[in-house]
Amino acid sequence: MKTFHCGSLVPGCKWHTRAESEAEVVSRAVDHLRETHGETHIRPSIVEQIKQRMTDEQPVA
Questions:
Q1: Which residue, 1, 2, 6, 50, has most beta carbons within 10 Å?
Q2: Beta partners for 5?
Q3: Contact at 8 Å (CB) between 4 and 23?
Q4: What is the pTM assigned to this prediction?
């Protein structure tokens, strides 16, 4: 499971998401940046920053 916390990219933002695939997390994060933070153009460097800040969540036993 992949996890992304927006606050790691946009200080103060509490939004986060998790999904099985990296692509789904990136898609959700991009949608969030557009809708919440008003980003109109998502540069490839932003996508890379999202990927760099993504973490693997360990399953709970």
A1: 50
A2: 16
A3: no
A4: 0.89
Report the distance separating Cα 13 and Cα 10, nearest Å.
6
Residues near 19 by beta carbon (within 8 Å), at least 6 away in sequence: 1, 2, 25, 28
Read off the DSSP letter of residue 6.
G
What pLDDT was estimated at residue 21?
A: 96
Which are the contacts of 50, defined by CB distance < 8 A and separation ≥ 6?
4, 9, 25, 26, 29, 30
* 40-44 long-range Cβ contacts below 8 angstroms, 24+ apart: none
What does DSSP assign to residue 20? S
